[in-house]
Amino acid sequence: MEKEQRKRETMNAVRFHEYGPPEALRFEQVPRPVAGAGEVLVRVRAAGVNPGDWQMRSGWAAEKFGLSLTLPFTPGYDLAGVVEAAGPGTERYRIGDRVFGMTATAGAYAEYAAVPASRLAPLPVELDDEQAAGVPMSAFTAWTAVHGQALLSPGQTALINGASGGVGHFAVQFAKLAGARVIAVTSGRNRAFADSLGADEVFDYTADDWAELEGAADAVIDTVGGERTDALVRSVRQGGTLVPVGWGQYSPALAETIGVRVQELLMAPFDADRLARIGERLASGDLRVEIGAAMRLAEAASAHALSESRRARGKIVLRTEA
Q: Residue 150 in 3-state DSSP?
């Protein structure tokens, strides 16, 4: 009886006790959370892996933004699963409902997570848990870049740098749905994938000449960043917009000379209704999520290493196998 009680009060989770490489992640038993007011306890079936997860684990976010974490820390924001229990003041979801969404303060790399009901949406029956866990943060980021910052309209041309990545492959699709012509920048090995997303033109950054893209786009969405970004600035037409999603170094002098606006990405507050609409588009086939790798929760270190390599196609997710 005591053993059963202990089992109900604990769970498996992935945490890091100090900043460091992927190997700093530990798969261990921790106390199971309890749903507070306005929260539901989600039995996590799958958790999405995002660059912000390893940026926090490595200490990069702490150094870059002064972000202070209470250690040990359980990473992960995106999740999909089943409602296990509901806290006071929660009426939207019932026990057994399938949901997906984002936690408020990380903690998705675990078998259970307490999540505000306002940060969840019903999970369409057409989607499995792994697909759903790969959606929220990347889809929201791409939607914001395309509609909130680039303000794409029908007939314009959008260039998506990093088109085969988590945010990039959503950005290609949102830009196409907005009626734009899309130039997808990716490696040659992902050409067929970019074509399948609806890209009108695929530029192989490993082989093609960047000079061919000068003045080619009304808006550039850069999901890669880095130091060699002048070519991206030059690819924007006069009066156009460059939206950085990755952390890049863009020459203010060059942008001013060409007449390019560099608009830092400003994320809108989480919107459960928008996530539900994205889920509907995924269910109907108007939108797709590419799961490039699905690993067990205990393999989180390998998932982080793959994400950091920037070689993953689409999204990486972790299965809890709970």
A: coil
